[in-house]
């Protein structure tokens, strides 16, 4: 009788263990699916970020070129302003000389 009870008890425990293992297997598969989907989403976002960074780098490069051109233009304008000042001084000197 003891052995039969013990066998029955072990069989119940085996069934419970089998159910627990099956539940855990389902849970692990669900977790793996979720992790895989999460990684796919993260990778997609990283790809988008990399594309955005690439565009920003190009924009910065264009801006650097524009700043360089603007610096050259400012330098030319400074020279032109200096020339205009000299011309005005000559005109004023001429006018002072010619006008009483």
Question: Can you describe what's shown?
Answer:
With 100 residues, the chain is mostly helical. It contains 1 helix and no strands. The protein has one helix at residues 2-98. It starts with a helix and ends with a helix.
Produce the secondary structure layout.
Layout: H1 2-98
Which features characterize this protein?
100 residues, mainly alpha, 97% helix, coiled coil
What is the global morphology? rod-shaped
Helicity, as a percent range: over 70%
Helix count? 1
Indicate the radius of gyration in whole angstroms.
42 Å
Beta-strand content bin: under 5%
Going by helix content, strand content and strand pairing, the class is mainly alpha
Main sheet makeup: none
Q: Mean pLDDT across all residues, rounded?
A: 96
Along the chain, the helix and strand elements come as H
Low-confidence stretches: none
**What gap, in angstroms, lies between the N and C termini?**
143 Å
What is the strand tally? 0
Coiled coil: 39-66
Keywords: Coiled coil
